[in-house]
Structure formats: C-alpha cells, structure tokens
Design a protein that fits this description.
The protein is α/β, with parallel strands linked by helices. The chain contains 5 helices and 4 strands, in the order βαβαββααα.
Length: about 160
C-alpha cells in the first residue's frame, strides 16, 4: 500500500457469521489501519468468534464476564529468545460477530461500517494505541477516523441516526 510496510493477516473463523464481511474486506481494513498508523511489518491473526468464546476470553483476561465486541492481544516475545528467533508477530485480534451485529443495530450503523471500525480499532490496539485517557483516546480516534474515511466509511464517533 503506497510503499508503507503492511502486516500479513491470517483469518480464523470460529463461528458461522452469515452477515460477516468477506476475507478480502477484513484484510483491506486491517491494512488500512496499519497504514494510518504509519505502517508496520509482522503477522496478525484475526479470529471471528461467537458470544461464548469472547465472553470467556473477556472474563479470563479482563475480569469482565460478558461478551464484548473486540479484544486485542499484542504478542510479547518470551524472555531469553533472540529478537530474530521467530518471524515478527504483532498479535491476535478477536472479534465477536454477534456483538458487532447487535451494536450496529443499536447504534444505527451499517453492519459493514461497524465491522470495519472494530477491525481498525483492534489493529490500533495491537500497535500500542489506547483510549484510557483523553489525549490517547483523541489520538487513537483520529487514526480510526482516517483509516475508515480512506475506506469510504463515516466517522464512527459522530454518526447521525438515519
């Protein structure tokens, strides 16, 4: 993409999500997020799951026993291994198809626009962006808006109901 380094993306389907985007869209949105962040080299696994799988992960890793839309797990190199011991891994993004569908309806967004937002949001978390404080949130949201606009989607934080 324009000479900017981009990650490779491996997609895993752990649920039957008939309204989920196709793999080419998931790839495109992942690369758009990486490009908005300035580019990155490495491998990303994007896993599409149901309510139960993400609920368990959210409970085990965040202490919240309920489904959520997206979780990101940045890769941490094990201690003692040389930096070049394995190919660069960026981490895993887990997206719950059921939650994305419900939230899109609740927020009066298209399912496709909300999927794109969740992919972009997850990638930016893998790359170290966060929204814990206002300054960090502003930076992350501006990158999300940039990546989504480049894909033809409206600002997800300023959507007007139809």
């Amino acid at each position: 993409m324009n000479g900017i380094p981009t990650p490779t993306v491996d997609i895993q389907w752990a649920t039957d999500a008939p309204d989920a985007p196709d793999e080419s869209d998931l790839h495109r949105w992942t690369l758009a997020a990486a490009e908005a962040a300035g580019g990155v080299v490495g491998d990303i696994t994007l896993r599409i799951v149901d309510d139960e799988e993400i609920r368990i992960l959210n409970r085990d890793y965040r202490g919240k026993d309920k489904p959520t839309n997206v979780l990101s797990f940045p890769f941490d190199m094990p201690e003692g291994l040389p930096d070049d011991a394995i190919a660069p891994l960026l981490g895993d993004i887990i997206i719950c198809a059921d939650v994305v569908r419900r939230e899109a309806a609740e927020q009066n967004k298209t399912v496709e626009a909300h999927w794109a937002h969740m992919v972009v949001h997850g990638v930016l978390h893998l790359l170290g962006y966060d929204h814990i404080d206002d300054d960090d949130a502003e930076q992350m949201e501006s990158l999300e808006i940039l990546a989504l606009a480049g894909q033809g989607f409206p600002d997800p934080y300023n959507s007007l109901p139809p």
